[in-house]
Amino acid sequence: MSSRVAVKAALLALAFMLVILGISAYSLSVDRNNELTDSLAFGCAVASELLESAEDDAQRVAILETLPEDARMGLAYFDAGGASLYDNRPGREHMTAQETDLLARAQEGEVIRYTSDADGSLCVLSTFPDGSALRMSRSGVTAFTVFKERLLIYTLIVLGVCVMVFFLVYLYDMRRRSIIRQVTDVLTDFSDGRYDARVQLQHGSDLREEVEGINLVIEQIEQRVFRQRSRDHAISVIMNQMQSGIIVVDAKMHILLVTPVARKLTGIAPNSEGVAVSEACKNVNLEGVFGEAMRREGVYTNEVAARTAVGRGHRPLRFYVSPMRQDGKVVGALAMVEDITELRRLEQVRTDFVANVSHELKTPLTSIKGFVETLLDGAINNPPMAEKFLKIIMLEAERLTRLINDILSISKLESGMTDAPTERIQLDKMAFEVADMLRIHAEEKQVTINAHRNKKPVYIVGNPDHVEQMLINLIENAIKYNKPGGSVTVHVFGNDREANLTISDTGIGIPEEHLPRLFERFYRVDKGRSRSMGGTGLGLAIVKHIVRGMNGEIEVHSKFGEGTEFLVTLPIAPLPPPEERDEGGETAEVMDITDEERSQEQRERDESRRRGIHEDAPSDPPSADKPDAAAEAKEGE
Does 415 reside within a domain? Predict the structure, then answer.
């Protein structure tokens, strides 16, 4: 490619040199002709002086004939009438019209110089007083003649100039093309992500400014690319992290942009940019949504149901569509789509909660109202019957009290409005104390409780009342829904990161299909049995919120007919300062209570009951005045 450019440059140089040499040859020919004309004029003047001494034309002709002849020079003598009396080049007998005209206008003795119109020869005409004339002529020098005379020199000059131009242009074009190749390579590297590539200045190159200018432009492009990539990356991250999807279409309903979330929600096929929405999405009528939005002003909101799982279900979606305008014309639309399944679920939960609360409140109130009406109708006059009815009314009132307390408790826990103070709690000690407090209730149900304090204490951070309520609910549920002769085991263990509490029983167990909903409010596995035991259906829901409020987790494992185990995992409490540990002794080891010591404590309690020390102990569970939501271990939330 460079050689072709160099050849073209050499041909242009050749043409230019030929023009220059032609002009030079013509200029030289003009100078030569002027010199020849001057020599002819001088010769003519000398001849005229020789002829002036002659008396007539015959003598003049004789003198001319004695002059030496020159083959290149013509000599002619004309009389006053213009007839040729002598001519060393025969052929013309008279003067030409041009010569006659020149003589007519010439002054006497004037030497006239002219170029012949007939053959282009150089001529000099000298007149005599008697009207006769002497003409001397010779052939002129043309530019072609000069060119032929200097052909070798001109050829060498032209070849030298053409070769020099060829190599100069060739080298320059090679350097230029080298820079172009480097620029192309740099752009290729740019497209491959190598943004540090630059054009290198070759040694001895005179294109420093051009190369520096190109590198400056490349650096500016690099900065713009980085800024654009950063902006695009930020936009991409934002759009991909949004819970809502984005869909953009043009005026012809062709997709311009769709985010992964929007693809997932609407089922738009991959690589659908440029495809009509009616073809890209079969699960939702997007064309109708966008079409309606483009015909309106402002943001258009619509809710649709999208098919899911190959048409076996529907997902509620909400669209916020805004038309895009340019110069007053609609050029497309932007839609934000969000999944409102959770919103619909929460609305249903709220509806169910209101219905459940209404039902739970209505049942004891109806019972209370019925017994009060019975008393008013005359049963109050029957003391035994009246006492029975009043006890039932009291039980229903206590049930209402527990229900309202549980509702208030769970409401505070869910809203995060509890400002209960927190402190370090020895979990194994509190679990043992609660188990020991419920041991009498367990004995009434013929259930054995196994609990002990650890050799190495396990500490957590929380509100003591909340932790105690959680333990009471879980242990009391394990007792209520146990079998006669069964057992409840409370075990606390931990490591450097977390504390674990397990409460297991050998009771009736929970069917597997009920486990996912066990922590829902008012959910009961056996509604009739739960109510008969005084449960409100909120116990496990309260436990769940207490655990999560302490950044913990709760799990349930159960096998129907064999028993249930609850596992509570809570963050371990950080160690207190050394001085507090020394004073409080929180890190001191507590020896396990042996079976013999536990049996001795049990015998002492039995002996105390026989002696009547516990005559005033309530027969109901000691947690009757506490939210009995724990009674839902088999009830659910």
Answer: no
Q: Are 418 and 411 in contact (CB under 8 A)?
A: no
Out of 205, 237, 269, a domain closes at: 237
Whether residue 487 sits in one domain with residue 431: yes
Number of compact structural domains in the chain: 5
In a domain, 376, yes or no: yes
The C-alpha atoms of residue 413 and residue 409 are separated, in whole angstroms, by 6
Which of 343, 350, 345, 365 is CA-nearest to residue 522? 350
Length of the chain: 637
In 192-285, alpha helices (H): 208-241, 260-266, 277-280
What gap in Å lies between CA 169 and CA 139, rounded to an integer? 44
Query: Could you report the per-residue pLDDT of 204-263, keeping only the tens digit for each?
Result: 566 677 777 878 888 888 888 888 888 888 877 877 777 788 889 998 889 888 888 888
Residue pair 304/285 in contact by the 8 Å Cβ criterion: yes
Residue 220 β-bridge partners:
none
Residue 585 has pLDDT above 50, yes or no: no
Long-range contacts, stretch 318-326, CB < 8 angstroms, 24+ apart: 319/289, 321/289, 321/290, 321/292, 321/293, 322/293, 322/298, 323/293, 323/294, 323/296, 323/297, 324/248
Residue 157: how many CB atoms within 10 A of its CB? Answer: 15
Place 584 in a pLDDT band, splitting at 50, 70 and 90: very low
Indicate whether 477 and 581 sit together in one domain: yes
Looking at 310, 339, 368, which one is the last position of a domain?
339
Q: What's the mean pLDDT when you consider all of the chain? A: 78
Domain membership of residue 567 (yes or no) is: yes
> Which CATH number fits the domain that encloses residue 252?
3.30.450.20
635 has pLDDT over 90: no
Residues ≥6 apart with Cβ < 8 Å to 368:
393, 396, 397
Q: What are the Cα distances from residue 360, in Å, to 114, 393, 443?
A: 141, 15, 30
- The span from the CA of 50 to the CA of 365, in Å, is 169
Q: How far is CA 450 from the centre of its chain?
A: 60
Helices H, strands E: what count in the chain?
A: 18, 17
Asked, for residue 406, whether it belongs to a domain, the answer is yes
d(Cα 93, Cα 234) in Å, to the nearest integer?
A: 108
Residues 363, 433, single domain; the answer is no
Query: Do 231 and 250 belong to one domain?
Result: no
The rounded distance, in Å, linking the Cα atoms of 137 and 91 is: 14
Burial class of residue 410 (count of CB atoms within 10 Å of its CB; 0-12, 13-18, 19+): buried
Enter the tokens of residue 495: 């490591």
- The reported pLDDT for the residue numbered 570 is 92
CB burial of 184-211 (b: ≥16 within 10 Å; e: otherwise) equals eebeeebeeeebebebeeeeeeebeeeb
Say if residue 357 is in the same domain as residue 268: no
Strand, coil or helix: 372:
helix
Q: b/e per residue, 287-296, with b = 16+ CB within 10 A?
A: eebbeebbee
- Residue range(s) defining the domain that contains residue 505: 420-632
Once rounded to an integer, what is the mean pLDDT over residues 479-505?
A: 90
Same domain, 500 and 624: yes
